[in-house]
Amino acid sequence: xxxxxxxxxxxxxxxxxxxxxxxxxxxxxxxxxxxxxxxxxxxxxxxxxxxxxxxxxxxxxxxxxxxxxxxxxxxxxxxxxxxxxxxxxxxxxxxxxxxxxxxxxxxxxxxxxxxxxxxxxxxxxxxxxxxxxxxxxxxxxxxxxxxxxxxxxxxxxxxxxxxxxxxxxxxxxxxxxxxxxxxxxxxxxxxxxxxxxxxxxxxxxxxxxxxxxxxxxxxxxxxxxxxxxxxxxxxxxxxxxxxxxxxxxxxxxxxxxxxxxxxxxxxxxxxxxxxxxxxxxxxxxxxxxxxxxxxxxxxxxxxxxxxxxxxxxxxxxxxxxxxxxxxxxxxxxxxxxxxxxxxxxxxxxxxxxxxxxxxxxxxxxxxxxxxxxxxxxxxxxxxxxxxxxxxxxxxxxxxxxxxxxxxxxxxxxxxxxxxxxxxxxxxxxxxxxxxxxxxxxxxxxxxxxxxxxxxxxxxxxxxxxxxxxxxxxxxxxxxxxxxxxxxxxxxxxxxxxxxxxxxxxxxxxxxxxxxxxxxxxxxxxxxxxxxxxxxxxxxxxxxxxxxxxxxxxxxxxxxxxxxxxxxxxxxxxxxxxxxxxxxxxxxxxxxxxxxxxxxxxxxxxxxxxxxxxxxxxxxxxxxxxxxxxxxxxxxxxxxxxxxxxxxxxxxxxxxxxx
Length: 658
Known about the structure:
The protein is mostly beta strands. It has four helices and 40 strands.
């Protein structure tokens, strides 16, 4: 399940564990340069290393040492103390195939008449990709950027329509903190990496390189920096149990957690921010992704109302003028002002040049530990979903206080408690729909849990608002990488693409219509930003290969949904196209990049990172968004220079500058 969702528990982060110093010089870490090529090419790799420390690969349940086949004599993966790290000579972690049949291969559409559901083999494969990246955890300079060699282009050609744009990704990059294994993905330190589609090389010297320039850096939070210097785990994550240092002292009244800065990333007007909703953002330099100073109190010149900023945002784009607006939000997890009955919240909007467009402050009543993870926006409304979660005080006192559970586990989804859809007015038109002393519209929903939303839009002719989301049937924060069995994927905590329809123009109406638009379990939705806040037709997600009302599995497909049959409450299901990556592959979040001079909603490309557990490789796939099933499916398949990039969380496509 952790391939598909990612909470960042909304406790405050400690200043000592989250404020990095300014690192601007190579000499600070004595990082030497060295060349790097793809293992599929013939050139050799030369590395100069300052020091080396070794961490073991995930020793997950049901994976024994005999299951792990490495391509070198060492059975460990490693970080290199200097340079770019990893590469051709890195230790391979490959899980042997033990089933009597061959693995199902990749291809458009996916296997026909599939009744398969995940096996123990699938689970071993899936767990094996959750380990430390092979990329260096030392500070990288702009000179450490690498052009991906042409030898890494496994198939197809890189589309010229991507030139001038950059794909950014963020996610946990360290899942073993200097010998201390993390079995909950969300506590891993943030690794930001980018893929810049630059002008194609013309000199003879560069003929063996593609036009993709790769950069990476860990977000150098105070916690990350201190632990790297000490070469040991020092700080507690939201999912850590007991004292992370491993000694006998444990302070049960310490509720601070490490800001891991691992969830979201955005680039706006040449400023880059790494986001984690439990604390403040970190700003990164665009040219090398190096962390600038400490946590920031303002973003693009706007002061944060509360010392937290959500990892999710929306980019609204005018289809005619191409002008773009960045919209984000903050909400405190616990009330900070008397009488302690409301949580402070704010919505922020920025113009494309980075100037402030507007900021709107709201107070949300009775929203403590409501876990507001994502947002939606329409022409007239800001929309938040409050989850049916609250503090389990008994668990806090009887388990957390005695180091028997993580702090995150004390925030529990409550049976029978209803989530709340909050709609805050964005315009004067919306304010006129409020009654009496209302500051927002609120609607109770069926018991379910929300991480990620798709889009919201208004029907002008009826006054209705439709909100598309991907809710989970239930959520338990004690779930971790070591708990999953084949039985987990039989109904249980699954998602479905769901539409909610309400009518805020009817002042006294609290009616909510909820309908499932697909039986396929999916996560990590994306769409063309020109359709944000408008009625959309196409949505792209990671998805399960099995399309069933009960069975599901990890994200192993790219799915394109056409929701036009669902318009006007038709009761019809969405039509989907599927590209299946194969039984041993697991996908990350798809990202939409519009084509130059695009006309249709799906005139664009889909970029998606994929982990192949069978070969222990990471690939970047590029699809024509119009038809992901046409021909071989993808436009281009690129191996990431033999690096292991573990499953990330969220990314951002920065389009070519005007």
